[in-house]
Design brief:
The complex is a heterodimer of chains A (289) and B (435). Chain A is mainly alpha-helical and 289 residues long. Chain A contains 4 helices and 4 strands, in the order H-H-E-E-E-H-H-E. The chains are: A mainly alpha (289), B mainly beta (435).
């Protein structure tokens, strides 16, 4: 690459050099003088005048001949021209007639075609009009039908919506009533449960005989299964305190009671939900140790 | 899709309501602090021979004295069933019993007797424990203690200590200037007492080795106090230490390799450790006050002892490795002769509360809370020693002018007097578990 660039530069610079070379100076031209004889010179001049007069006469004769030939050629040319003119006139007339005939024919043809086209166009337009009218009629019919359908559908929908709204309202009323009833029931049942819890607690505190091995901080969880009549179905340790005597005492506290009669007064559903199975946490407070 | 979501919501609601339902917990924080009620029905004797012991009576007494049980007097029982089918739980429930024990004695193989007992849970109406025990006719008392141990462990979770023993010292004034001292070994209830050493000179501070095979004590039989070790099985004795001045209060380390003891050979009483193999002696207290009555912590890492370095006798704990000293007692103006329960939680001691006119009583301090409870009301007690299961403290006290042994359950609920021995009784020491 570098080499080619160098070469290019060299070529360019070289040509520059060549163009700058200055032209070589031309050597001066030398003049040669000649000697002339004057007598010979006068003789030659008379000769020359005679020749010139002869030449003028000859030239006048030539010119006369040429003038007569030219006049004859002119006459012939004018005759020829007149004949050509007449021929030409005749041809032009014929041609004009032919062309006129052609034009007439073409126009007739054109007229005929135009008539056909017009007829066809009229027919097509008539057909189209007819089709359009048909389509329009059909569209209108469809529109009428659709409008009718829409009207019917709207009526039906409205009816349905109304029915649904009424149903929703009824449901809502029902739901509210139920929620209120449930809230009331829940409140009542919570109160009942609170009562029963306090009752069970009181009974068990009377029943629990805390053994000597019990220490503050011990905790045993006993699960009690009740029968609906309030009797203890079974009781067992759910979470051991780690002390056998303590665990025993807790389970025995339940079995010692045997029956919790107030549970029998509880609503059966409430019993099933909350009291069939109950956890009791035995966790002594205020022991000596 | 919507239905699925509804289902999920419903399921969540159900779960929540379920968990809410499970939340209902009744808390019981109060109760009647009360011993467990148990009826021990007299055992039927189907052996055809007269029995030397009232087995049910011994069981009943054992359980009653532990403080954990309240037994039913026989005269209140509606019947004496001895077989399962004869137990009417309703009757026992009406009698407000929680448990009932029945049993019978039948002839066994090769002249032995088969004692069968059964423990019932009255409230759950089910059998809890039953097994036959084969004994020789002379072993009925052992069988009774064994059954009591089994029942105790079943119902309290603690190992029973009814088959353990106590040693104590008796002193009799035979005539003017003539005394008789005895070292006596007996069942924990004082029964079957037997003299294992008799001396005209004082015997002091008997102490059990942890394996229950040996006793260490101080005897003046040579005219000056010396420490002896006596092997119970063979009766063999050896004098392990004797220095001029006071030699006293030996205490076995739990591993049985060392004796902590008090020597005053350097001037005033200090506590030493004697290695029983090498006989090397190491002094571990240095104080111009009196340091005495050492006793080991159950883990063997520290000693508790009495010291008057604070101006009045109080109980201190010394970590043997670090020699760190910690005062344990602060209540009362006299706390001495400390003994720890095997769980390390309670300290039994002789205690005198603040104020004039107060006597010396057995007190127990909960080392977790530092609460101190005074267990006795006798005015002059000494030498408490704790049952290995921590249920009962035995101690010496005065009855009239005579020293007797008494015991109190650790909760102070049950107190009882040991059967009287001859003479002045002092310094009881409760054995470790012997089986």
């Amino acid at each position: 690459m570098a080499l080619s660039v160098h070469a290019l530069v060299f070529v360019l610079v070289g040509s520059q050099w060549e163009m700058q070379t200055t032209p070589r100076p031309q050597p001066p031209r030398h003049i040669a003088a000649e000697m002339v004889d004057l007598k010979a010179f006068a003789e030659r001049r008379a000769e020359q005048e005679r020749i010139a007069q002869e030449k003028v006469r000859q030239e006048d004769a030539v010119r006369e001949r040429e003038r007569r030939a030219a006049e004859q050629r002119q006459q012939e040319l004018e005759q020829k021209k007149a004949r050509a003119e007449a021929e030409k006139q005749a041809r032009a007339d014929a041609e004009r007639k032919r062309q006129e005939e052609q034009v007439r024919k073409r126009e007739a043809e054109k007229k005929r075609q135009a008539e056909v086209a017009a007829r066809k166009k009229a027919e097509a337009e008539a057909r189209q009009r007819k089709a359009e009218e048909q389509a329009k009629r059909e569209a209108e019919k469809a529109k009428r039908e659709a409008a009718e359908l829409a009207r019917k559908e709207a009526a039906r929908r409205q009816q349905q919506e109304q029915a649904e709204a009424e149903l929703q309202q009824a449901l809502e009323r029902e739901r509210k009533a139920r929620a209120q009833a449930e809230a009331a029931a829940r409140k009542a049942s919570q109160a009942v449960i609170g009562d029963i819890r306090g009752y069970i607690q009181a009974v068990l505190q009377d029943s629990w005989r805390i053994p000597s091995t019990a220490r503050n901080g011990m905790k045993a969880v006993v699960t009690i299964h009740f029968l609906p009549n309030g009797e203890v179905d079974q009781a067992y340790i759910e979470t051991s305190s780690g002390n056998a005597a303590f665990d025993n005492s807790a389970v025995q506290a339940v079995y010692r009671v045997q029956s919790f009669p107030r549970i029998a007064e509880i609503d059966p559903i409430l019993f099933e939900r909350n009291l069939r199975k109950l956890k009791v946490e035995f966790r002594p407070e205020g022991l000596r140790w | 899709m919507v239905k699925l979501k509804q289902l999920i919501v419903l399921a969540c609601c159900a779960l929540v309501s379920l968990s809410l339902r499970a939340e209902l917990v009744v808390e019981v924080t109060q109760g009647v602090e009360s011993p467990t009620r148990i009826a021990v029905v007299p055992f039927a004797n189907d052996s055809g021979v007269a029995l030397s012991e009232d087995i049910a009576g011994v069981i009943q007494q054992d359980l009653n004295r532990s403080g954990f049980f309240e037994t039913m007097p026989r005269e209140n029982m509606l019947g004496f069933p001895s077989r399962r089918n004869d137990v009417y739980f309703r009757d026992w429930r009406i009698s407000r019993m929680d448990y009932v024990v029945i049993g019978r004695v039948e002839p066994g193989a090769s002249g032995n007797l088969n004692v069968t007992y059964e423990l019932f849970d009255v409230l759950r109406e089910e059998s809890v424990l039953t097994e036959p025990v084969s004994v020789s006719p002379k072993g009925l008392r052992d069988a009774a203690h064994f059954v009591a141990d089994r029942i105790f462990e079943q119902l309290t979770g603690l190992k029973g200590a009814f088959s353990t023993q106590v040693v104590y010292v008796t002193a009799e004034q035979l005539s003017a200037g003539k005394q008789r001292f005895r070292l006596v070994l007996a069942d924990w209830d004082g029964a079957r007492a037997q003299t294992i050493l008799e001396s005209p000179e004082p015997i002091l501070s008997p102490a059990w080795s942890m394996d229950g095979s040996k006793l260490a004590y101080v005897s003046f039989e040579t005219g000056k106090p010396s420490i002896y070790v006596q092997h119970l099985a063979s009766g063999r004795r050896e004098r392990v230490q004797s220095f001029p001045g006071l030699n006293g209060a030996p205490a076995w380390s739990p591993d049985g390799n060392q004796l902590a003891l008090v020597l005053s050979r350097d001037g005033n009483p200090e506590i030493y450790l004697l290695n029983l193999q090498t006989r090397a002696l190491e002094r571990i207290t240095r104080h111009y006050g009196i340091d005495t009555e050492p006793s080991w912590s159950p883990d063997g890492k520290s000693l508790i002892f009495t010291s008057d370095r604070g101006g009045q006798p109080q109980i201190y704990q010394l970590d043997i490795a670090s020699r760190n000293l910690k005062r344990l007692t602060f209540e009362g103006n006299y706390n001495a002769r400390g003994r720890l329960t095997q769980d390390g939680r309670f300290l039994a001691m002789v205690h005198r509360s603040q104020g004039g006119g107060n006597g010396f009583e057995i007190a127990v301090q909960d080392l977790k809370t530092d609460r101190v409870d005074i267990l006795t009301r006798s005015g002059l007690v000494e030498s408490p020693s704790i049952a290995p299961n921590g249920s009962v403290v035995i101690y010496a006290t005065q009855e009239g002018t005579r020293g007797v042994l008494a015991a109190v359950s650790l909760d102070g609920r049950v107190q009882f007097r040991m059967p009287a021995s001859q003479g002045d009784v002092r310094e009881p020491a409760w054995s470790p578990y012997l089986n």
